[in-house]
Amino acid sequence: MRLSLHSDYALRILMALGATGAQMSVDEIAARYGVSRNHLAKVAQRLQGLGYVATQRGRGGGMRLAQEPAAINVGAVVRAFENLDNFVECMDPATSACPVRGACGLQGALGGALSAFLRHLDGFTLADLLPQPARFRALLEGA
Questions:
Q1: Model confidence over 103-126: pLDDT tens digits?
Q2: Is residue 132 classed as helix, strand or coil in its secondary structure?
Q3: Residue 62: beta bridge partners?
Q4: In the predicted structure, residue 143 carries a pLDDT above the cut 70
Q5: 24: nearest Cα among 35, 16, 12, 15
Q6: Could you read off the pLDDT of 61-81 as tens digits, one per residue?
Q7: Interatomic CA distance for residues 4 and 18, integer angstroms
Q8: Do the strands 62-65 and 53-56 form a parallel or antiparallel pair, or are they unpaired?
Q9: Using 50, 70 and 90 to split pLDDT, how confident is the model at 34?
Q10: How many helices and strands in the chain, by DSSP H and E?
Q11: Which alpha helices (H) appear in 21-125, and where do they start and end?
């Protein structure tokens, strides 16, 4: 299983903001991670809409965490950015065209694995992803 780029970037943004405790711009975060500014901007906008970050426009603007790191659940963030209804084609009854749907165990096996994966992530907060914020910050800054 592989998370989408949007989930990856969402977690990276939150971790950068959580480790620094500061306001950072999309450009600054993109440059530090060496990733696409445009993709990161879309994810940042979504994080704002979901209430994970607060933004300030204009000169000196940027984003900061809108919640404490310990209040941000990793499983909830992943659920917000992943389309898990279509994990495999047969899991969406509205669009499934599989001729053996309901007669095989694939849907149950993968659905159980997905549930276990998300339950595991539910046990972590953003604070858990940053056990050494100073070290994370130093590495992110290239020190």
A1: 888 888 988 999 999 999 999 999
A2: coil
A3: 56
A4: no
A5: 16
A6: 899 999 999 999 999 999 999
A7: 21
A8: antiparallel
A9: very high
A10: 6, 2
A11: 26-33, 37-49, 74-81, 106-122
What residue type is 28 in one-letter code?
E
| 121's tokens | 């992530």
Sign of the alpha-carbon torsion through 103, 106, 110, 113: positive
The position carrying tokens 């969402």 is 10
Q: The pTM is what?
A: 0.89
| In the block, residue with structure tokens 């907060």 | 125
Cβ atoms of 84 and 114 within 8 Å: the answer is yes
At position 115, the amino acid (one-letter code) is: S
pLDDT digits (tens, 9 = 90+) for 122-142: 999 999 999 999 999 999 998
Cβ partners under 8 Å of residue 14, min gap 6: 47, 52, 53, 65, 69, 72, 77, 126
Structure tokens at 47: 């994080």
Residue with token string 């209040």: 71
Q: Are 23 and 63 in contact (CB under 8 A)?
A: yes
3-state SS assignment for residue 59: coil
DSSP state at residue 99: T
